[in-house]
Design brief:
Layout: E1 9-13, H1 18-29, E2 33-37, H2 46-51, E3 55-57, E4 71-74, H3 84-91, E5 95-98, H4 99-107, E6 112-117, H5 122-135, E7 141-149, E8 152-156, E9 162-166, E10 171-173, E11 177-180, E12 189-192, H6 206-218, E13 223-226, H7 230-239, E14 243-247, E15 254-262, E16 265-272, E17 275-282, H8 287-302, H9 307-314, E18 325-330, E19 333-338, H10 343-357, E20 362-365, H11 370-375, H12 377-382, E21 389-392, H13 410-419, E22 425-427, H14 431-439, E23 446-450, H15 459-466
Parallel strand pairs: 1-2, 1-4, 2-3, 4-5, 6-9, 6-12, 7-9, 12-13, 13-14, 14-15, 19-23, 20-21, 20-23, 21-22
Antiparallel strand pairs: 7-8, 10-11, 15-16, 16-17, 18-19
Helix pairs in contact: 5-8, 5-9, 6-7, 8-9, 14-15
């Protein structure tokens, strides 16, 4: 077992991935010598990694020999522990562990670990929680699955009091090891935003997903779940762990009431029995983000922070990078970027855009992974019905899947949507075709780029096509 206290030199495979990049950041700030390998392609994490002078190798033959590294960390990307670089380092004596094993060891160094789990909303909720703890003067350490939130980096080490983590249900190293990564964690407190079927390359059914969450809940010291998500509540009950619930639902222990729009976002009250917490505000839009804000509020309350201080700490949070991020707003055109890549997320973000701007958005969507597109194609077909128009880009393959083993295409998604009654949707084969179509029509007031791939790189081209 590696001792992180004494480990000095660490190598990270797939270092540009959002989770791995933040692991690199927190290790660097702990005083470790950190470097890693990834492709030459530009990622949203590049800027922060370069700012911290973290070495990124893009060629295997330039990676120094084992004398430089005490530890190597891998995830499911780039072949995991079967990657030639990891095999080589292990052969030379370097200890190699998975991302999940690393987080298990890291969390043992902190007085309290707060984990945020759920199919949707993990990043926003964990970013808001980290932001609030910073504003409350708690000096948290955290690893958030983005590149930044508000003015803060998405990974930081400030003290050993609190560690905030996203608890990921994805497998350690599929297909050889499908153990859910969050099974390595034993947090002091867990916030569950929802449970939904995703990652069909790891789980065969919703029942398997539920069993994975039930096991994780049993490993948590405390539990807060969203009552609006039936699976989350049922799973919490099955786990036997005492829990608090929140949401718009009548059955919620902490029920959201009196929701109203305000100049900077939304304001609402929180009712629990006869007591009423009034005037909680958030700068985020959409009911899904109000739920995230309430979940974080209850976590902070459980940690012992004062009600009025919590309200102040959460109200000005704008969001994490690529989560309802307004990247352009000028001359009647607004471009919003979001990481939404699951049908449930797409529906929620389109609804939030309509609430915010009073107009149906034109959506540009890049499906992420062939396995997800194939398994959820019925749901994807229904996801865009509230948009003004939807353009579907080719599927973005994950570094962890072999696209040659799939036959599904982005055209299949479009055909499914049209069969289900939504006709304002079309497939585009590349960037040039998309820009030509956008430029040939009257410019919309709101455009959304959605997906977990590299669709965010299209913004300058979209602005140019519509100017």
């Amino acid at each position: 077992m590696t001792n992180l206290q004494t480990t000095t030199s660490i190598f990270i495979l797939g270092i540009k991935g959002v989770a791995m990049a933040q692991i690199a950041s927190i290790l660097k700030k702990m005083g470790k010598d950190v470097s890693g390998y990834d492709t030459e392609e530009e990622f949203i994490t590049d800027e922060e990694l370069h700012k911290q002078n973290i070495t990124i190798y893009t060629s295997e033959d330039k990676i120094p020999s084992v004398s430089k590294f005490d530890l190597a960390i891998f995830s499911a990307a780039h072949g995991g522990d079967s990657n030639p670089i990891i095999r080589r380092l292990k052969g030379e004596g370097t200890v190699a562990i998975s991302q999940a094993e690393f987080l298990q060891q890291l969390s043992k160094m902190f007085k309290k670990t707060v984990a945020v789990c759920g199919a949707h909303g993990k990043t926003t909720a964990s970013a808001l929680l980290s932001y609030a703890l910073i504003k409350l003067g708690a000096k948290p350490s955290y690893i958030v699955g983005s590149s930044s939130f508000d003015e803060y980096p998405a990974g930081d080490f400030q003290s050993k009091d609190y560690l905030v983590l996203e608890a990921d249900e994805y497998g350690v190293n599929p297909p050889t090891d499908k153990t859910p990564k969050f099974h390595f964690l034993h947090p002091s407190l867990t916030l569950c935003t929802n449970i939904d079927f995703d990652h069909p390359d790891v789980f065969d059914s919703t029942e398997e997903v539920v069993k994975a969450y039930e096991k994780f809940f049993k490993q948590s010291g405390g539990l807060i779940v969203c009552a609006d998500n039936v699976l989350a509540v049922q799973t919490a009950k099955q786990s036997g762990v005492q829990f608090s619930s929140y949401g718009f639902s009548e059955k919620a222990g902490f029920r959201i009431v009196g929701k109203k729009p305000i100049s900077y976002g939304s304001c609402f009250d929180l009712q629990s029995g006869e007591s009423l917490i009034k005037g909680i505000g958030t700068s985020m839009y959409g009911d899904h983000n109000i739920l995230n804000a309430v979940g974080v509020y209850l976590v902070l309350q459980s940690l012992g922070f004062d009600e009025s201080q919590i309200k102040e700490a959460i109200k000005e949070f704008k969001g994490a990078k690529r989560r309802f991020e307004v990247v352009y707003s000028k001359d009647g055109l607004t471009i919003v970027d979001d990481y939404a890549h699951h049908p449930v997320e797409i529906k929620a973000i389109i609804k939030a855009a309509f609430e915010r701007y009073g107009a149906k958005p034109v959506v540009i969507f890049q499906p992420h992974t062939y396995s997800r597109t194939q398994a959820l194609i019925e749901e994807f077909g229904k996801a865009f019905s509230e948009s003004e128009h939807a353009y579907i880009m080719p599927i973005f393959a994950s570094a962890r899947e072999d696209k040659s083993s799939f036959t599904v295409t982005h055209e299949d998604l479009v055909a499914k949507a049209k069969k289900q009654g939504f006709q304002a949707i079309e497939a585009v084969s590349n960037k040039d075709e998309l820009m030509a179509k956008l430029g040939s029509k009257e410019a919309p007031s709101v455009i959304m780029t959605l997906g977990a791939g590299n669709v965010y790189k299209l913004h300058s081209d979209i602005i140019k096509a519509l100017s």
